Amino acid sequence: MKRINYLEEACLVSDKLVLKNMTFYGYHGAFSAERELGQKFEVDLEIYTDLQNAADDTELAFNYVDAYTVVREIVEESEFNVLETLAETIASQILAMYDITEVVVRVRKTHVPVGGPIDYLEVEIRRKPR
Fold first, then answer.
1. Which residues are catalytic?
2. DSSP secondary structure code for residue 115 in this structure
């Protein structure tokens, strides 16, 4: 019977911090009108990391204000033809800035030129450090 190494098990534990439905105005899309007029984009960010060391110490806690600012700057100051590239850029920047085990990025646009009714188009990517 294999013995469980609880220290190894603890290292596998990952907590999740979520920034949900951040809303920004950006200039992304495959059509020139989307890039010229711009539109609203919604972003969800899931950060997987060990949060137990933070306890009640703001110096050790994950800085979600900085994460929000990074996402806002990417959405509002960059231009991409496809949402996949926007989501990938956000994920790459978050992974580069923080010691985390995984990031999930969802990007939505609610005005989708598909010729019919649709609530939104959403892209979701999941990335881990290399």
1. 109
2. S
Which residue in 25, 24, 26, 22 sits closest to 43, CA to CA? 22
Kindly write down the DSSP assignment for every residue of 25-59, as one continuous string: EE---SSHHHHHH-EEEEEEEEEEE--GGGTT-TT
CB of 23 within 8 A of CB of 41?
Answer: yes
The CATH code that applies to domain 14-127 is 3.30.1130.10
What's the pTM? 0.86
Tokens of 116: 């019919």
Q: With helix as H, strand as E and coil as C, how does 8-21 read?
A: HHHHHCCEEEEEEE
Q: Which two tokens stand for residue 36?
A: 């010229």
The pLDDT value given to residue 5: 47
User: Which residues does the chain have with pLDDT short of 70?
Assistant: 1-13, 55
Query: Is-contact 62 19, C-beta < 8 A?
Result: no
**Which tokens in the block code for residue 11?**
């290292």
Q: What is the pLDDT of residue 55?
A: 67
* Domain definitions of the chain by residue range: 14-127
